[in-house]
Amino acid sequence: MRALLVDRSAPAGLRLGEAPDPEPAPHQALVRVTATSLNYGEVTAVVRNAPDGAVPGWDAAGVVERAAADGSGPAAGTPVVTLGFEGAWAEYRAVDTSYIGTLPGNADFGAVSTIPVAAGSALRALHRLGPILGRRVLVTGATGGVGRYAVQLARLGGAHVVASTGDPGAHGDALRALGAHEVVDRPSSLGDPVHGVLDMVGGPTLVEAYGRLAEGGTLVAVGHVTGEPETFPFGALSGDLGHDRSVVTFFLPSCGGLAPDFTWLAGQVASGRLDPGISWRGGWQKAQEAVALLLGRRLHGKAVLDLGPVF
Ligand SMILES: NC(=O)c1ccc[n+]([C@@H]2O[C@H](COP(=O)([O-])OP(=O)(O)OC[C@H]3O[C@@H](n4cnc5c(N)ncnc54)[C@H](OP(=O)(O)O)[C@@H]3O)[C@@H](O)[C@H]2O)c1
Question: Cross-referenced InterPro entries, in alphabetical order (predicted)?
């Protein structure tokens, strides 16, 4: 099959080539991939660390070619969206049925391919905050793949949403259109404290955001795009009266039961209630261009690759 392979001698460390067809385990379906979306995490960590010849890729949408041998998951011919640790950037992927959501008939494969890592993380991280109806929620890195979904889902969940972006002048209107009630340049610019934070940035931003938590509030540490350490000022973690606050870590693959969430999210995207935030879309022969834009911090939203004939 054709696939995007890790090749450190190629631009952006990727080239289109041939790879062996995947052999599904009994609990895996074989899916013919039609679209995939790129995530910051895979483009940085996976492409840099995976061996030459590996087929990376976490998110993919397509059609079930062969149902799982153990009888779990959707039947052959079902349109689906899928998550895995590797193998999405290829014509076929073998994927655990517990990581497969099904699509409504009108779904755009490219649009729903943005769901698993970005929308799945936003949804499950919001769950960690508990009830958000009527409560203030801060989303940092709000213009990114996870952040844009988090802003929309927090709004859908009834929160008062505060979006934090490095450039409110450039992105404020777009974030308000997605549902943000307020847009700030950094957490320390917040007025009232917040009940919950979804932090995609890490480093000093996480520390600042923690400092803006109300009593009983929770910060979910989803991402660390800055690569900087978190250093808390003395006393920040003390348990004095009025300081009952939590920081929790988050790892999407550890979340069980994702398949129904992917199905629900696909319905929201297909119906137009959630904007997938595609800021770049092209054929997979242009993957190197998309990767360069993502790494250069010039993409604010999702990059989608449509798989099509290239040879
Ligand atoms: N724990 C998990 O299971 C999990 C799951 C999904 C994602 N993640 C992590 O969550 C983070 C966000 O993922 P994503 O896919 O949303 O990434 P993304 O699309 O690249 O967005 C990241 C956003 O962070 C902001 N940012 C602030 N400082 C930055 C910097 N120094 N470099 C780049 N961006 C910076 C940018 O927004 P502004 O320019 O508007 O400030 C950017 O839009 C990543 O660290 C990713 O690995 C973790």
Answer: ADH-like_C, ADH-like_N, ER, GroES-like_sf, NAD(P)-bd_dom_sf, Zn-ADH-like_protein
